[in-house]
Amino acid sequence: MDDLDFADDLALLSHTQQQMQEKTSIVADNSASLGLHINRRKSKVFKTNASSNTPITVEGDALEEVDSFTYLGSILDKQGGTDADVKTRIGKARAAFHQLKNI
């Protein structure tokens, strides 16, 4: 990662807990060199099919693990299905439809 001058939201993907910890540490170190810091309260970890319970840490503090995650408008959950995402999209469409006015 070369340019974190305007980093706001960032999603890191890894196959193993070790790879994720390494990537997280690299982002934290590069950010610090630019005067930026990772907000540990806002940062979340989403694991799927994970065999390790070891937490991902930033500067020694464990990041919160969550059971679902919204990425680019799609809801991902530990079950790996699309039920939650489809229900949410139907609900949003239903709400938008009810706001339409008869002409």
TrEMBL record:
Q: What is the lineage of its organism?
A: Eukaryota, Metazoa, Spiralia, Lophotrochozoa, Mollusca
| Organism, as annotated | Sinanodonta woodiana
Instruction: Please state what the protein is called.
Output: Reverse transcriptase domain-containing protein
InterPro entries, sorted: DNA/RNA_pol_sf, RT_dom
Q: What SUPFAM superfamilies has UniProt attached to this entry? A: DNA/RNA polymerases (SSF56672)
Domain of life here?
A: Eukaryota
- Give every Reverse transcriptase domain span: 1-76
